UniProtKB/TrEMBL annotation:
It catalyses: glycyl-[formate C-acetyltransferase] + reduced [flavodoxin] + S-adenosyl-L-methionine = glycin-2-yl radical-[formate C-acetyltransferase] + semiquinone [flavodoxin] + 5'-deoxyadenosine + L-methionine + H(+). It is found in: Cytoplasm. One of its GO terms (molecular function) is [formate-C-acetyltransferase]-activating enzyme activity. Keywords: 4Fe-4S, Cytoplasm, Iron, Iron-sulfur, Metal-binding, Oxidoreductase, Pyruvate, S-adenosyl-L-methionine. The keyword 4Fe-4S applies. Its main location: cytoplasm. This is Pyruvate formate-lyase-activating enzyme. It comes from Cohnella hongkongensis. Activation of pyruvate formate-lyase under anaerobic conditions by generation of an organic free radical, using S-adenosylmethionine and reduced flavodoxin as cosubstrates to produce 5'-deoxy-adenosine.
Length: 252
C-alpha cells in the first residue's frame, strides 16, 4: 500500500468538480506560482505521511453526501501527479468501495508516462493553464509551459474529460491576444467540458508572510466582474477559432 504526503483535507468542497466533494491537498509542487495561496505546500518533504486506508477512513463518514450530490473525491496540491502511484491507488479504492467520481486538479507539469495508471482511474482532470507564452509562464511560475501544453494534448488524445481553468491576474494573465491564444488552444482539444475564469484573490498572502517570503504580486488588485467577463469573451472567441481550425484539419 502506498503512502502519501498530505498537506490538508476538506470534507465539504463545492468548487473543485461536480457536486459535494472530499478534497485532498497533497504536499509538494515543482511550480512556485507567484500567486499561490498554499506556498507551504511546495516542500516535497513536508506534510503528514498517510496511507490510502487512512484517507479512506476520513472519507467514509461522508460518502452518502458525495453520492447524493453527484460529487466524489478531488485530489489537488501542491501537485498531485508528483505522488501519482498513491493517488491512483486511492482513486481505485474509492471506485471499488463506493463508486465515487474521481477528479484530479493538476498544473499539468507532468510527463504523461508517469501518469497513465493515475489517469486510468480518473474521471475528470481540472487543468490549470496559467500562461500560453513560455517566457511569461516561467516568470509567473518559475517553470516553462511546454510540458504542460504537451500534457493537455495527451489528455485530449486519450479522451480524458477536462475542465480548463485560468486564474485571471490583472497585468499578468489578462492580455487580450494571449487570452485569445488560450481559447484557440482549448478549441483544438477534445474532451473539454467546461472552461472557468477564476478571479485572482489575495487570501493566501498571509502564508507568504508567515514563511518569511516576499509576495511577488504585492500591489496587484483583484479583478472585478467586468474584467472577468471581458476575459471570458476573449477566450470564447478564441475557442470558436480553434474549433474551426480543428475542423479544417480533420476535413482536409
Amino acid at each position: 500500500m502506498h503512502t502519501g504526503r498530505i498537506h490538508s483535507l476538506e470534507t465539504f468542497g463545492t468548487v473543485d468538480g461536480p457536486g459535494i466533494r472530499f478534497v485532498l491537498f497533497l504536499q509538494g509542487c515543482a511550480l512556485q506560482c507567484g500567486y499561490c495561496h498554499n506556498p507551504d505546500s511546495w516542500d516535497t518533504q513536508a506534510g503528514a505521511l498517510k496511507s490510502v486506508d487512512d484517507i479512506l477512513r476520513e472519507i467514509e463518514p461522508y460518502v452518502e453526501y458525495y453520492r447524493r450530490s453527484g460529487g466524489g473525491i478531488t485530489v489537488t496540491g501542491g501537485e498531485p501527479t508528483l505522488q501519482a502511484p498513491f493517488v491512483a491507488e486511492l482513486f481505485r479504492a474509492c471506485k471499488e468501495n463506493w463508486g465515487l467520481h474521481t477528479a484530479l486538479d493538476s498544473s499539468g507539469f507532468c510527463e504523461p508516462s508517469r501518469a497513465e495508471a493515475l489517469l486510468d482511474a480518473t474521471d475528470l482532470v481540472l487543468l490549470d493553464l496559467k500562461q500560453m507564452d513560455g517566457g511569461a509562464h516561467r516568470e509567473l511560475t518559475s517553470q516553462p509551459n511546454d510540458r504542460i501544453l504537451r500534457f493537455a494534448r495527451y489528455l485530449s488524445d486519450r479522451g480524458t474529460k477536462m475542465w480548463i481553468r485560468r486564474v485571471l491576474i490583472p497585468g499578468w494573465t489578462d492580455n487580450a491576444d494571449e487570452l485569445r491564444e488560450l481559447g484557440r488552444f482549448i478549441g483544438g482539444l477534445e474532451g473539454v467540458e467546461k472552461v472557468e475564469v477564476l478571479p485572482y484573490h489575495r487570501m493566501g498572502v498571509y502564508k507568504w508572510h508567515q514563511l518569511g517570503k516576499a509576495y511577488p504580486l504585492e500591489g496587484v488588485l483583484e479583478p472585478g466582474p467586468e474584467e472577468t467577463a471581458r476575459a471570458w469573451r476573449l477566450i470564447s472567441h478564441g475557442i470558436e477559432e480553434g474549433k474551426r481550425e480543428l475542423a479544417l484539419m480533420v476535413n482536409t
